[in-house]
Amino acid sequence: MRPRPEHLLTLGVVFITLVALSIALLTGSVAIPATEVARLLVQDDGSITDRIIDQLRLPRALTAFGIGGMLAVAGVLMQVLLRNPLGDPYVLGVSGGAAVAVLAAMLMGIGSLWLPPLAFSGALASMLMVFLLAQRGEDPDNRRLLLTGIVMAAGWSALIGLVLSLAPPLQLPGMLFWLMGDLGGAPRPGLALGVLAVGTAGALWLAPQLNLAGFGMAQAAVLGVDPRHLRHSLLLLSSLLTAAAVSIAGAIGFIGLVTPHLVRLLGATDHRWLVPLSALLGGNLLVLADTLARTLIAPVQLPVGVLTALLGVPIFLWLLNRDSRS
Questions:
Q1: DSSP summary character for residue 3
Q2: 227 CB contacts (<8 Å, ≥6 apart)?
Q3: In this predicted model, what pLDDT tens digit does every residue of 161-196 receive, in sequence order?
Q4: Is the dihedral of CA 259, 260, 261, 263 positive or negative?
Q5: How far apart are CA 316 and CA 67, in angstroms?
Q6: Residue 297: what are its φ and ψ, rounded to 5°?
Q7: Domains of the chain, with CATH numbers?
Q8: What DSSP state is assigned to residue 57?
Q9: Is-above-0.85 flag for pTM?
């Protein structure tokens, strides 16, 4: 019996996951042999290298994996929700609400422990405003939802500029660094991995309906899907995943846009495979990008959002050109 292409693709992505995590653990300002890294993962000896692996590199790599996976799953859901292959988790202004909440807190001198919950609250507030404004009236093409999100994102962008213009010179670098995405101060990875697991499970539960929605909401309704309920579920789940990612590491773009397309190009179009494979591949992309961000000009660390944008922009333009030709 020949293995299905999805099985081979899954094995390949799992192998890439192991490679990406290994690169993250082995790469840094302190050279640690692979055999020593493997030993320290199962045996704590209290040495400096042990603390480097267990307290710095491994937690950061796992946090990056969780956040990248969340953004990728949110991207899959957003592209179905908007019926647009270039949909992105940030298109509805969710990250803008989180950024305004955090930057305002920094401006007022609120402690760093409050920043993640404030970011989460700001993202949820933005999501709820878009949700409430866009649900008025019937909109089978989601045009109202998309336009509402674009207007909200523009409004948050203006408020971000206002806060930055009022910030004291000493606070401005920290604000800009967080705004561009930063995993340096991310908490222990349990939160990111837990949210990723819950979000992926929710997306897999919706996978059969997502496959039907690919034929259009009208056709899906004929086949027994409630379009209004599905839209609400997609908006809520994708926004929650994006809000969680932003609250942990700031605004990191293009992972949610690029990853689903890469998985589709590899041959997975069924959402029962597309969702988990996107979660794995999105996590791998952010792990590799974060490793590059902290080592490219070490000891200086670059904001990881800058690298994902530099890598994502040409891929975005290629996808846009590819869609226009097809």
A1: P
A2: 140, 213, 217, 218, 220, 221
A3: 999 998 888 888 878 887 888 887 766 788 899 999
A4: positive
A5: 20
A6: -130, 45
A7: 5-89+184-325 (1.10.3470.10)
A8: I
A9: yes
